[in-house]
Amino acid sequence: MACMRTLLALLTRLPVGYASLDEVARCLHLVPLVGLIEALIVSLAFILLLGNPGIAAAVYLVLHLLVTGGLHLDGFADYVDAIASGRRGLEAVRVMKDPRRGSLAAAALAIHSILVYASASTIASARLETILAAMISSYTVACYTMVYLLAFTRPEPYAGMARALQEAAPKSITRAMIVTIACIALAALLDPLATATAVVTGIVTGEFVRRDVEKRVGFSTGDTAGFTYETVRAVALLAAAIAVSAPLGLRPHIGLPP
């Protein structure tokens, strides 16, 4: 419980206390459980507004922002700025640390929100079990890929906030994987198709992002972790939405009976 309070204090805006980085590093393997808790909270939008997919998706966006405090979205925008600058290494880090936002970052945030809203609207039209499966798998995989990024990229070459987490990540990654598998198993019991699609797509996206971070910056930072989380979450939700809608929508095109 002490671990979860510390992790929630760092990664969310839930009023659970203060986050000690040393304690967060010790509990890093439980980060996927933060994703599980986030998923259950944001799923309230769909449970309470079942049958109103458009409104449910809009409330979901607000709930996600309230729960995370926009922490990961900030990192997402910062890394997009670095991509737009075309710079590498410490020069890219300087761009990420600049509090000003570039036009591409603003556009990327808008596109991200549109994709997530569209995906959530489609998922909201599905059965409650499918909604929960999509949310649980997307959020837990998004949280796991942050640990994965920290474990398999070089640490910051300076004493930054993420340094303690980067040093703990290689020792935590196996246990984090086990926790993630347990969460995925829960989601798979609810809807195997939505879960498998979100998980596979999320893992592939996380590896793609990791390689880009390694090439562009050379090491991971808090901003790259936030970019990983939000990118994986958005892509996993989109994949789950396609999986939810594809069986009926594709039947006429592949010769199956209606």
From TrEMBL:
What GO cellular-component annotations does this UniProt entry give? plasma membrane
Q: Into which EC class is this enzyme placed? A: transferase
User: What cofactors are annotated for this protein?
Assistant: Mg(2+)
Write out the entry's keywords from A to Z. Cell membrane, Cobalamin biosynthesis, Magnesium, Membrane, Transferase, Transmembrane, Transmembrane helix
Q: Is RNA-binding tagged as a keyword? A: no
Reactions listed under catalytic activity: alpha-ribazole 5'-phosphate + adenosylcob(III)inamide-GDP = adenosylcob(III)alamin 5'-phosphate + GMP + H(+); alpha-ribazole + adenosylcob(III)inamide-GDP = adenosylcob(III)alamin + GMP + H(+)
**Cellular location(s):** Cell membrane
Q: Does the keyword Membrane apply?
A: yes
Among the GO biological process terms of this entry, one is: cobalamin biosynthetic process
Q: What does this protein do?
A: Joins adenosylcobinamide-GDP and alpha-ribazole to generate adenosylcobalamin (Ado-cobalamin). Also synthesizes adenosylcobalamin 5'-phosphate from adenosylcobinamide-GDP and alpha-ribazole 5'-phosphate.
What is the similarity comment for this entry?
A: Belongs to the CobS family.
Topology with regard to the membrane? Multi-pass membrane protein
Q: Which Pfam families match?
A: CobS
Ranges that cross the membrane: 35-63, 104-124, 130-151, 172-190
**Which pathway is this protein engaged in?**
Cofactor biosynthesis; adenosylcobalamin biosynthesis; adenosylcobalamin from cob(II)yrinate a,c-diamide: step 7/7
**Recorded GO terms, molecular function?**
adenosylcobinamide-GDP ribazoletransferase activity; cobalamin 5'-phosphate synthase activity
As recorded in UniProt, its EC number(s) are 2.7.8.26
Protein's recorded name = Adenosylcobinamide-GDP ribazoletransferase
